[in-house]
Amino acid sequence: MIAFVRGRVAALTLTSAVVEVGGLGVEVMCTPGTLAGLRVGQEATLPTSMVVREDSLTVFGFRDDDERSIFELVQTASGVGPKVAQAITAVLSPDDLRTAIAADDVKTLTRVPGIGQKGAQRIILELKDRIGPVTGVQQPAAAATEPWREQVTQGLVGLGWSAKDAEKACAAVAETAGPVPDVAALLRAALQSLSRA
């Protein structure tokens, strides 16, 4: 188990950071909020969780220990794997998740990509007694990175656009996002801006 990585940030991508640890570059999968707090060339310490699969070893990195513990806890709910767990930590702060589960707030949980109505109900049922109380720790402003950006960017890259073009398109449509972004509409608008360019 790799509990944390500490070293110079060698590279950043849309979904991961490469941290130089003892001469090795360790790729750490991170949420947009965590990546926003990292800078290439600067030292960083990231609490981590390693997920072992038959065909891969993946290291997930987090802003703090609380976020890591939530990532590990939600995976104990049936039907929640590391990708959905990471999406939960990207969209909801640990306290937002605790509040939603305590209040049986299915609507808040279904904001997370990959979680439907039944999945949200199952998470609430299975984690209600184990999630713990709200800690009251305020997340840094970087946590407010819009999750729609990652979704739109991944959608555009999946359609064959470069990551750089996808980021430009997201920047072009950002002001139309509003308080509750419609990811499908933003993706269409981003595609239109790319076709005009």
UniProtKB/TrEMBL annotation:
This is Holliday junction branch migration complex subunit RuvA. Its main location: cytoplasm. It comes from Nocardioides nanhaiensis. Residues 72-91, 107-126 form the Helix-hairpin-helix DNA-binding motif class domain. Belongs to the RuvA family. The lineage of its organism: Bacteria, Bacillati, Actinomycetota, Actinomycetes, Propionibacteriales. NCBIfam families: ruvA. The RuvA-RuvB-RuvC complex processes Holliday junction (HJ) DNA during genetic recombination and DNA repair, while the RuvA-RuvB complex plays an important role in the rescue of blocked DNA replication forks via replication fork reversal (RFR). RuvA specifically binds to HJ cruciform DNA, conferring on it an open structure. The RuvB hexamer acts as an ATP-dependent pump, pulling dsDNA into and through the RuvAB complex. HJ branch migration allows RuvC to scan DNA until it finds its consensus sequence, where it cleaves and resolves the cruciform DNA. HAMAP family: DNA_HJ_migration_RuvA. Homotetramer. Forms an RuvA(8)-RuvB(12)-Holliday junction (HJ) complex. HJ DNA is sandwiched between 2 RuvA tetramers; dsDNA enters through RuvA and exits via RuvB. An RuvB hexamer assembles on each DNA strand where it exits the tetramer. Each RuvB hexamer is contacted by two RuvA subunits (via domain III) on 2 adjacent RuvB subunits; this complex drives branch migration. In the full resolvosome a probable DNA-RuvA(4)-RuvB(12)-RuvC(2) complex forms which resolves the HJ. The keyword Nucleotidyltransferase does not apply. Has three domains with a flexible linker between the domains II and III and assumes an 'L' shape. Domain III is highly mobile and contacts RuvB. It holds the Pfam family HHH_5. Keywords: Cytoplasm, DNA damage, DNA recombination, DNA repair, DNA-binding. Residues 145-197 are annotated as: Domain III. It is found in: Cytoplasm.
